[in-house]
Batch of 3 targets.
Target 1
Amino acid sequence: MGTSAVLKLQQVGFTIPQVEALTEFLDSQAATKADLTQVEHRLQAQLAEFRTEAKEEIGTVRIELERTAHRLEVQIAGVRSEFKAEIIECRNETAMLRAELRQLEQRITIKLGGMLVVGIGAVAVLVKLL
């Protein structure tokens, strides 16, 4: 506190010990305010650093996620291709089985027809004989 301020305080009735106490108090308040300002600046700097680190970390995670998504897309495409190939193979096998069944049906029809002819002939012979 300047000397003119001390004189003014004394003129309005402050004693020297009161002026000294007031001066010490104001000085301590100014120091406290300066300390708070320093703390605020440090916190702001730390917050800015944290934001920068967080942005970098988010960017890294985003890149990793994009890579993982790409790998999964490739794997899904591979599985889809394998699945389509298996479906085609199953369809081909089903077509072959149908063809084989038709051939068996024809053979059975021919054999049954032959058996019927033999059976009718045998019945006819038996009817004539009996």
Target 2
Amino acid sequence: MNVLVCLRTTARTSPAPLDAADAHTLARAAALRAGGHTITAVYGSSLAEADAIAAALAPHVDRSVRIAGDELATADFHTVGLVLATAIRRIGADLVLAPAQGEDEPLSAAPAAIARLLGARYLPLVEEVTALDDGGVEVWLRTAGVKRRLRVALPAVLATAAGAPAQLPQPGAAPAGSAVAAETMMITDPDATVVRRRLELLGRPEPASRGSQTVNSAAEMVAALTRR
């Protein structure tokens, strides 16, 4: 099973390359990796941050893909969802894990946006994930104070629940030169507007601009401006 982890999609809570929300999601992915599943990390960052993030991820993932550009740091959840969903389609994944954050945070709906764009099932507040022999996953989540166990068919997008600081497993000694180098993926045109960028990512043609009309007198202009 190919597991893709979307990182750095929440409001940054620390100057560290990966914050607590990222650590929660990586911890869920680590349990799957221990079972032999491939983990790919996808994140947006500036070039200045790239080396530090790649080094922090290297012990915990099999592949690391950086989305080049600074736009995601200030984008809304619609744009974040579009960019990440486009990257996921290119890479390919059976299961997507993403950090969750509070409902009042601006990017809280990003995982749901990713699921909608991918046409995948979406579950929030996931505390545990286990791979099943039939190709699906079993998840534990808590709703209305009740912990529930569900079987989920793939593809699916799971938003991990926030909680106590997660402890990532300590990796064993890695052979020299085995660190995971981050690949760079270009998704957007930095000169495009946000509206045009969203349409391009969705694979839809840009809508035609408002039509024009030639007028030859002031009366015709007034009539054109007031026509409904």
Target 3
Amino acid sequence: MLIEKLRKLPPRKRVLILTHDNPDPDAIASAWGLSYLLKKKLSLTSNIVYSGLIGRAENRALVKGLKIPLDRYENHAWNEDRSIVMVDSQPYTGNNPLPSDVIPDGIIDHHSLRKTTKYERFAHIDERIGATSTIITASFKRQKLFMPKKIATALFYAIRSETKDLGWEGSDLDYKNYLYLLPRVDFQALHKIVHPRLPQEYYRMIKTAINRSRIFKTVVVCPLGKAPYPELSAEIADFLIFRENLDLSLVMGIYQKDMYLSIRSLRRKVNSAALMRKIIRGFGSGGGHEIMAGGKIPDVSSDSSKIIEETITKRLLNALSIVDVEETKFLS
């Protein structure tokens, strides 16, 4: 049980809850739920820390609308006065700011346990489920702990978005906890999260994505170029994959000096996480799940970006055994 593992944390120490960079709803909600569990069951105070940027409109609406307390990462955060618990992420994967010489006390995640992962006290990892928020919700249930409506709304939206309404990688446990949360949700707040106001820049980037996307049989590849925020690659990958006659999308976008990659797949025989690691090898790091994955390539210059995009595209097509196929435009 998660609570029993959390009891291994030192008493009276403040807890630093660390999410991955540019946290998504699952990371945000599970971290917030964990903070409440620590306070109510173990009398431990905590703060949630993230690096990067929260740029996607839905994610900003989630944090702002529910008033979720998040702090930006600071270099001085790593000290012996606080326990470190990682949520929806694991150390040394390239998607969080944890230094290589710091070992977290605990890890709560639904991604596969990485060989490089280290921890001091516990790892609560269940890769059978679709969302880390399911782990947190299940702990509330087992403890029969009152759940505030705002936290319930965040966890509900996280499970919904992470599993695409339980259609992507949703397990029986995700389904049961989804139903548990349902009567506790603030649906007015949820509506504002699911349907946020979108800036003009979003539509401009959709136009750019459509114009730059290339189709190879049933695969669409989009070298997006400069992006206004890191999560846009994932947002565009979600958008492109549902065009008819497609079953896999790869989007590459550059935010500041880093390239962010996202894969979405309807191919059940293709493991997206393994595919991402294969095509990004030597450039950066990546990971994810069977049908969705993300990657990051640091310090990409304007001179090297085109070469990297073409190399990764060729690797992707070779890995999928797509050869001697003429590319077409997204709108032909």
